[in-house]
Amino acid sequence: MNKQLILFFILYFIGTSSLFSQRVFEQIDRGSFGNSRNDTISKTGEITVKLSGKTKYTDYKIFSHKRDTAYIDTTLTIQKDYKFNYLRTDNFELLGFHNQGQTFTNLGYNFSNLKILPDIGFTAKQFSYLDIDEIKYYEVPTPTTEITYRTGLQQGQVLDAIFTVNFSRRLNVSLSYKGIRSLGAYRRSLASHGNFRGAFHYRAKNNRYEIRGHLTSQDFFNEESGGLPESEVEKFTSNDEDYETRSRLDVNLTDAENQFEGRRLYLDHSYKLISSKDSLNKKDFSNLKIGHVLTSETKEYNFTQTTSTTDIFGDINSAGASNNLAKNAITNNELNLEFNSKYVLGKIKAKINLTSYSYGYDSILNTSSTISKIKLEGNAISVGADWNAKIKNFQLNATGNLSPGSGRLSGNFLKGEASYKKDSVFSVKGSLLISSKSPNFNTLLHQSKYDDYNWQNNFSNVNTRDLGFDFSSKWINASLNFTNIDNYVYFDEIKIGENNTPKQFENQITYLKVKANKEIKYWKLALDNTLMYQNVSSGSSVFRVPELVTRNTLYYTDYWFKGKPMLVNIGATFKYFTKYKMNAYNPLLAEFTLQNTEEIGFPSVDVFFNAQVRRTRLYFKIENVTSSFTEKNYFSAPNYPYRDFVIRFGLVWNWFI
Q1: Which of 78, 306, 419, 466 has minimal CB crowding within 10 Å?
Q2: Of 195, 186, 362, the residue nearest 262 (C-alpha)
Q3: Mean of the pLDDT values across residues 77-103?
């Protein structure tokens, strides 16, 4: 029902936006948007647009959560190829499962961008979840659409549609929906996901009042196979011809599935109490601004298994519930006061947050458990400040937050950045992050009909310190992160009497990550190289990563045909990571757990042919092209084979009406 309402809303909005867009064209004709369009309206109500050639690509703007500005980019580059996947991001540090829409194994970790508050957990289901800082806002002179399509695996496809329009120069609305349905090559591998996003931003004529916000509704459904039994793994690794059709292989679970859903309302508005300049085209020398930010978000996770035909999860309480629906709701109200002036260094924002949270279950799901409470609830008050300053080529940023007390939301957060940019020659940045917060809620309280998956813990805050350096130039791009973690929480391996229970590491994790990228060009050829080195000098028994991860892409670029109507990229990408004791995937917990029996590491080669025709980019890729004649040692996680040889096709198409 929710999907039907969303679809109706999208169709209604697109149908009516053409009427409202008339106002935009009229404003353009009167000089708005740089006087870049002329329009006429016929008696039938249709709008004819005559391009004057004055509109530039910089008129089509994208604003991030931090209010950084980018532009709608219709070019074809090798970085676009890396991002042409379901997540729409470069997944160099991720290893996907065989089917699109399934989870990912982390080949590397990023602790430089931690959240301030703890989360519900079930992290294996949240790779596709769009957080607040991943929602984009737009400003466009004409209605704009972007369609991304990619074929799935065995009866499936991915579609990501974005539509945005400015009703006036000061009001923009955008609607986006990304959906996937892919059956997969193995049994019980169906993935069906949906991400709806609706966003807007508005500012008053005098530029004193400004508001932006978004609404999201996201759901991720997966059938869960539990991986292959050991007997079936042997058939896979031995390359048994009778099982080249992967659906013939048996799986551990025949009726299990899990679902993750999330809904969020976000509003951020402010009003300038004092402003020396009100014009949009002149810089404010000083102002005092009061603001309010509302975040209301709910997340739910549910694992369902109607029958119990496997013992991989241990003993079961036959009277227990068939699902383990966990709910998390958090509401945060932030009040802030911002001041900037030419008489002080930078912009200062003081803020206070009122937060309430509720996580848990509606009842006791397993009568054999010793759990005494079904919910974790509470309220907290926190104070914080942001500071941003620019001194010539230096940029300084700092943010801090303190939540006193002894509740689950108590902790502190401090992040500072200092960067220097020398024109377009090079830039260097240093960062420091200090965080203390509660572990995810599912490690503190969890219920299930399986006896070994019921716990109630009282873990200490996880303390994280991350020191980072980044260097970017036309010669090389490099980064270094040095991370220390105290009280690290992990899911243990399966042992006698317990199954993957969460535990808190008593010692310190010391993690080093060094990453470098260099592209070498000659004639119409290019070799793009990315190398990542990782070392865990302390805590490697519970925190595991491959020592080396490399990606090397050799490709050819040229314009084809008379008049250069088509730009092509043709090449191959080699990726490899060294063997290590990769974490195992647990579909009941939707988490990755320790295992000490198997080491995984393998190379893969993808061949691609990409082309650009005007504002359309076409992608044709053959994935894991060497799998048909190499050793069958490729796994995304223990008992979960990586994808075989498969051909994918897709496109990205932009319309600027």
Answers
A1: 306
A2: 195
A3: 95
Residue 411 region by backbone torsions, left for phi larger than 0, else alpha for psi between -120 and 50, else beta = left
Find residue 495's DSSP bridge partners. 498
pLDDT of residue 276: 66
Tokens of 126: 């949240």
Measured between its terminal Cα atoms, the distance across the chain in Å is 32
Q: What is the pLDDT of residues 193-210, one digit of tens each?
A: 999 999 999 999 988 999
> Which range, 272-286, 419-433, 521-535, has the best average confidence (pLDDT)?
521-535
Helix (H) or strand (E) holding 388: strand 375-391
Cα atoms in the Cβ-side hemisphere of radius 13 Å centred on 486: 8
- Token pair recorded at residue 601: 């590491």
Confidence of residue 28 (pLDDT cuts 50, 70, 90): very low
All residues at 6 or more sequence positions from 91 whose CB lies less than 8 Å from its CB, including other chains: 82, 85, 104
CA distance 609 to 568: 7
Predicted confidence band of residue 456 (pLDDT cuts 50, 70, 90): very high
Q: Tell me the C-alpha to C-alpha distance, in Å, between residue 201 and each of 56, 167, 206, 596.
A: 22, 11, 15, 51
The residues, ordered by sequence, that sit 6+ positions from 599 with a Cβ below 8 Å of its Cβ are 579, 580, 581, 582
Q: Is the pLDDT of residue 399 over 80?
A: yes
Distance CA 103, CA 123 (A): 9
Count H helices and E strands in the chain, helices first. 5, 37
Lowest mean pLDDT among 38-47, 159-168, 300-309: 38-47
What percent of the chain stands above pLDDT 90?
76
Report DSSP letters for 514-564, one per residue.
EEEEEEEEETTEEEEEEEEEEEEEE-TTTS---SEEEEEEEEEEEEESTT-
Q: How many CB atoms lie within 10 A of CB 450?
A: 24
Separation between Cα atoms, residue 52 and residue 37, nearest integer Å? 6
* C-alpha R_g of the chain: 26
DSSP secondary structure code for residue 230 in this structure: H
**Nearest-angstrom CA–CA distance, 459 and 163:** 45
Residues 6+ apart with CB under 8 A from 541: none
Residue with tokens 């009406």: 657
d(CA 43, CA 194): 41
Question: Per-residue pLDDT for 242 more than 80?
Answer: yes
425 versus 121: the higher-pLDDT residue is 121
In angstroms, the CA 545 to CA 539 distance is: 11
Dump strand ranges (E) for 119-182: 137-139, 144-151, 157-168, 171-182
pLDDT per position as a tens digit, 355-391:
999 999 999 988 888 888 999 999 999 999 999 998 8
Length of the chain: 657
What pLDDT score does 322 carry? 65
Residue type, 610: N
Q: How far is CA 472 from CA 75, 194, 426, 516, in A?
A: 21, 36, 5, 10
Name residue 134's beta-bridge partners: none
Q: Say if residues 182 and 154 touch (Cβ distance below 8 Å).
A: yes
